[in-house]
Specification:
The chain is built from three helices and twelve strands, in the order H-E-E-E-E-E-H-E-E-E-E-E-E-H-E. With about 220 residues, it is α+β, with helices and mostly antiparallel strands. The protein has a single domain, classed as Hypothetical Protein Tm1070, Chain: A, CATH 2.60.290.11. The strands form three sheets. Strands 11-1-6-3-4-12 form a six-stranded mixed beta sheet. Strand 3 and strand 4 form a beta hairpin. The longest helix is centred in the first third of the chain and has 21 residues.
């Protein structure tokens, strides 16, 4: 009887281990914030996203397939879209994005997949929200949620806030913290709104623009 019980215990442990190894996080939607962008003496924030290889089905010569796109949507603190873009990340690849120069207030030629855009007519932005959809089609106006991306962001924290005279001003010295992007629930309404807002901004010359995508081998 003891032997039977021992065998059953081993089976339970083995099954539990196998199940644990096969259970992953299928999140496709992530959010974070940015702060103190374009602020004198404040360091630049960074968004970093990796492709964990979930979608890879083969790896000829060590180069796995399963490329995904980080559909990135940046909003100011008044809930208005600043920029959007779709950046390719190959399996096991790393994307690094500058908050100040690429996501919030880039300058330069327009177009997806390159540095910068021309939406500086809307002025500078200091704080807001960054949303990322893990997608498989490379078009931020029609995101296609597919699991496989994971991300982190640095946050620029001020040590003092002056409330008067208005508006409030955050001052240094500044400190940098880093956290994982928060897994979030992606509703159909939110998915459609992100695509529509991006499409409207890019097509109708509203002052929004493409955020720039760094090459995977240019981390900073």
């Amino acid at each position: 009887m003891k032997r039977v019980g021992f065998v059953l215990l081993l089976l339970v442990i083995c099954l539990g281990t196998a199940m644990a190894q096969n259970v992953g996080d299928n999140s496709v939607y992530f959010v974070t914030y940015f702060s103190n962008a374009n602020v004198t003496a404040a360091p630049d924030g960074t968004l970093r996203i990796i492709n964990d290889g979930t979608q890879a089905t083969s790896c000829p010569d060590g180069a796995c397939n399963g490329t995904l796109w980080a559909d990135i949507y940046v909003f100011d603190d008044s809930e208005e879209l600043i920029s959007c873009c779709s950046c390719a990340i190959t399996s096991d690849g790393l994307l690094s994005e500058s908050v100040d120069q690429q996501l919030v207030n880039p300058t330069g030629p327009t177009g997806p997949g390159i540095y910068g855009s021309t939406f500086s007519t809307r002025g500078e932005f200091t704080r807001g929200v960054i949303k990322v959809v893990s997608s498989n089609n490379g078009n931020p106006t029609t995101p296609s949620p597919t699991p496989g991306l994971r991300g982190w962001a640095t946050h620029i924290q001020a040590t003092k806030v002056k409330l008067t005279p208005e508006p409030p001003v955050e001052t240094g010295p500044f400190y940098v913290t880093e956290t994982a992007l928060a897994d979030s629930n992606l509703s159909t309404a939110e998915l459609n709104n992100l695509g529509a807002a991006c499409s409207y901004g890019l097509v109708d010359n509203t002052g929004y623009g493409w955020c720039g995508c760094s090459p995977e081998d240019e981390d900073f």
